[in-house]
Specification:
The chain is an alpha+beta fold and about 375 residues long. The chain is built from 12 helices and 16 strands. The chain has 2 domains: about 40-170 and about 245-380, Glutamine Phosphoribosylpyrophosphate, subunit 1, domain 1 (4-Layer Sandwich); about 185-235, no CATH class. It starts with a helix and ends with a strand. The relative contact order is 0.18. It binds 2-acetamido-2-deoxy-beta-D-glucopyranose (2 copies). This is beta-aspartyl-peptidase.
Length: about 375
Amino acid sequence: MDSMGRSSVRLLVAVGLLLLRFNWCLAVDGGGVAEVGGAFPMVVSTWPFREAVRAAWEVVSASDGGGSAVDAVVAGCSACEVLRCDGTVGPGGSPDENGETTLDALIMNGATMEIGAVAAMRYVKDGIKAAKLVMDHSLHTLLVGEKATDFAISMGLPGPINLSSPESLEKWANWRQNHCQPNFWKNVAPAGSCGPYRPINLAQALDSVKHEVEGSQGGVCQDWFQSDNLLEPINSHLKFIDRHNHDTISMAVIDKMGHIAVGTSTNGATFKIPGRVGDGPIPGSSSYGDDEVGACGASGDGDIMMRFLPCYQVVESMRRGMEPQDAARDAISRIARKYPDFVGAVFAVNRKGVHAGACHGWTFQYSVMNSSMHDVEVITVYP
Ligand SMILES: *[C@@H]1O[C@H](CO)[C@@H](O)[C@H](O)[C@H]1NC(C)=O
Ligand SMILES: *[C@@H]1O[C@H](CO)[C@@H](O)[C@H](O)[C@H]1NC(C)=O
C-alpha cells in the first residue's frame, strides 16, 4: 500500500473511532448514508410502523390529487392507535401508577404553523383526532386531562371509554406485586416500596450520613458516596427505559403540493406518575415541521428530551444550512453532553426529501415511503 493509501485508511479509522467515541449512530442503508433526494409526496415515521406509513401514504398519494399532509398524518397516527403499535400508542398500553392509560398527541400544520395537542387525556381512544379537533375548532394549542376529554367528546369523538386492556391491567398488577419498582420518583421515602411517598431532603440526608462516616472511619466516605448504594434508588428508573416503554409514533408527511405536516401519538411512559406529560404533545420536542425547511420526529426518554426541544433544533439547524444528517446528530449530541445515559432518537427530513436519523443509547429505526418505492423502507440507525 502506498503512503497515500495508508494515510486515508488512518483517516477513516480515526473518523470511525471518533463516531464510536461519541456513541453516534449513522443511518446506514445498504452500506451508505441514507441521504436520498426525492420528489413529493413522502411519508417518514419513527420505528418500523409499516401499517401506519401505508395508511398515510394511501391518503397523500391518492390518484384524485391526493389528500393533504395534515390528513395523511391523522390517517397514519390513527392507524397506529387502532393497531396499538408496540403497546405504546393508543389505548390499552402503558398503565400509569394507578393502572390507567392516558393519551398524549400533537399535530402541526407546517404551512400555517398551527398546532393542536392533547395531553394526559383520559377516556378517549383517538389521540391524534382529538389533537386535530383542538387545532381546527379552537384558538388554543394544548388541552389537558379530563378537560381535553370533555372537549374531544363534545366535538364528536366516542367516549367516555375505559382505556385499560387485560394486558395493561396485568402489567400493572405485576408491578404492584414487585413493590412498585421501578418507578419515576427520586429523593423520596420510603424507597423500595409503593407510596405514598414523602420528600427527603437529599442535602440533609447526605450530610448526616457524612458526619456519621467521618466520625468513625474517615477514608470510607468517598467510596460510599460513589457507591450504587446511594445512587440506585434515586436513578432506578433509568434501568427500565427501553423501546417498549418510551415509544412514540412521530410522523412527517410532505404532500403533492410540498406542504409539510407532522404529528405524534403515544400513551406515554409505563408506570408514570399520574399527571405526567411527556414530549409527545410538546411542539418542537416530539415533532416539528415548517414548509420552508423540513420536518423532524423524535422518540425516546421524553422527560429528558423535552428539555432540549430536539425537533425544533433540527428544523432550525436545517434552516441555517445544515444537512439533515448533521442536524439530527447535532440535536442528539446536545442532549448526550448533559445526559450521557439518555436513550433517544430523531429523524430529520428536509423539504427536498433528503432524510437521515441519529440516536443515542439504543438502535433506532425509521420508515420511509415515496413514489418510487413499492413498499415502506425501514432504515436502521445503529448505536
Ligand atoms: C425515493 O427514495 C429512494 C430511496 O430512498 C430514492 O432512491 C428515490 O430517488 C426516491 N424517489 C422519489 C421519487 O423521491
Ligand atoms: C377500567 O376498567 C378496569 C377493569 O374493569 C377497572 O379496574 C378500572 O378502574 C377502570 N379504569 C378507569 C379509569 O375507570
